[in-house]
Design goal:
Number of helices: 6
Protein name: DUF4374 domain-containing protein
CATH architecture: 7 Propeller
Helix content: under 10%
Keywords: Signal
Number of domains: 1
Shape: globular
Largest sheet: 5 strands, mixed
CATH class: Mainly Beta
Length: 447
């Protein structure tokens, strides 16, 4: 059950020994001509991200293309955007893991898999297909492998964090299962100066009772800073083996949702907190899964047998179990599953979700958008957006927040669609620019 790049620990030690913590650049000469990002007199830049089909419709494995327009054009239904024909190809073997600066003027990318896997690059957004690489390229592969799970922390576009977990079953001399050792690695990256800031490995231990039953943390993702800036929260997915056989057990009890809490910026002293409200996973998938709003961190869970919840972690770095927000109850559905979401500073949010009644489309279950209020714990499906059985949101990554407005993409796999803009205070929905699709391909969000 070891990861394919189990030599990460050795590579990281070599990087440390050779001074690569200062800079792990593949080219010591920065790619920077001194120009600032392109100015935009018609609002902030809105970058459309499109995932081309690989072998199967909706798999997104054919590469990622991006194309930027002004927010004014993004709201204009007479504007047509064709990223598959005219877009900039983002370096990545598979679907790129993109992030953007808070003002939309910079795109950050770490290539996922392939020869360039683990390479960090950033680009000035100049409009259209013009994305100008700026700063040095740096590889974080020695620390977290060539297919890293990473996120941009909300600290003014200063820091990125990437994570991994290695697992290994342990047995006694008689081949009796003992426990699964889970080793977590976390690296932080200076996004502005393209340098490694810190790297730490830690052992993730559960209670003896859970470990003897075969439970362990099998996947982690989506680091988020607390309000004080002194703790890093990392979402976790629980896995299990059958202690009798040592084989994967997918039928075990779904445990209370868990989050790893680390000291920041040292990345030391990990502890694990458990929700008494939600069950299932908190690591998300492709999109940021936890956000700081009004001093607390709000986090979605997935795979909850009672439907996805939005959970709350308070200023004491513990789950606030007095906060109960269940999407099934709020929407009147069964098995609601939060695929991706994004709040505004006021606590209004747009949630991408599927549920037990979702149709099975060409790439997977049909998706929907809902408008959510974190304070009142209410949710309402956004009916003004058209929904097709082939509207696939499992790989959705990016929402643009501009004040109280949230921008999203809508297009079934292989079909044209549009940008939609939701005013989260009034609920008004504006149909924007047309998105021109390609066979078997889909849109994975806006940045």
């Amino acid at each position: 059950m070891k990861r394919e790049f189990f030599s990460i620990k050795t590579l990281a030690a070599i990087a440390l020994a050779t001074g690569l913590l200062a800079s792990c650049s593949s080219d010591d000469t920065p790619i920077d001509n001194g120009q600032e990002p392109g100015e935009n007199e018609d609002g902030r830049w809105i970058t459309v991200a499109a995932a081309r089909m690989g072998e199967n419709p909706g798999d997104g494995n054919g590469g990622t293309l991006i194309y930027s327009v002004s927010s004014k054009d993004a709201k204009d239904p007479t504007v047509s955007i064709e990223p598959f024909d005219n877009g900039f190809i983002v370096p990545s073997n598979r679907t790129a893991r993109l992030q953007s600066s808070e003002d939309g003027s910079t795109i950050f990318n770490i290539s996922y898999a392939g020869d360039t896997g683990g390479n960090y690059t950033k680009y000035n957004v100049n409009g259209g297909q013009d994305f100008e690489q700026t700063g040095s390229e740096i590889s974080i592969a020695p620390y977290v492998g060539s297919a890293p799970r990473w996120i941009k922390l909300f600290d003014g576009d200063q820091t990125g964090a990437a994570v991994y977990v290695d697992t290994e079953n342990q047995f006694d001399d008689n081949d009796n299962y003992l426990r699964t050792e889970a080793t977590m690695g976390v690296v932080t990256l200076d996004l502005q100066n393209s340098a490694i800031l810190e790297f730490q490995e830690s052992s993730l231990s559960l209670s003896e009772e859970l470990e003897t039953q075969g439970y362990y943390i099998g996947r982690i993702d989506m680091p988020t800073l607390n309000a004080a800036g002194d703790k890093l929260y990392i979402g976790a997915r629980m896995s299990k083996v059958d202690p009798e056989t040592g084989e994967t057990d997918r039928n075990g009890e779904v445990l209370g949702s868990k989050t790893i809490v680390l000291d920041y910026p040292s990345l030391e002293n990990p502890t694990i907190i458990t929700s008494e409200v939600g069950k299932g996973n908190t690591n998300g998938y492709r999109s940021i899964n936890a956000f700081l709003v009004n001093g607390s961190v709000y986090q979605a869970n997935q795979g909850d047998p009672n439907g996805s919840h939005i959970l709350k972690i308070g200023a004491n770095n513990q789950y606030d179990d007095s906060y109960v927000f269940n999407l099934d109850e709020a929407l009147g559905l069964e098995d609601a599953y939060i695929l991706a979401w994004r709040p505004t500073a006021s606590g209004k949010a747009v949630v991408a979700y599927r549920h037990a009644g979702s149709a099975e489309g060409v790439a997977g279950a049909q998706g929907y958008f809902a408008l959510v209020d974190l304070e009142s714990r209410t949710a309402q499906k956004i009916d003004e957006i058209p929904y097709s059985e082939d509207f696939y949101l499992f790989q959705y990554q990016g929402f643009v927040v501009d004040g109280d407005e949230i921008y999203v993409t809508e297009a079934p796999v292989g079909e044209n669609g549009n940008i939609y803009v939701i005013d989260t205070e009034t609920g008004e929905v504006t149909k924007g620019a047309e998105l021109v699709n390609a066979e078997g391909s889909h849109f994975i969000g806006l940045f």
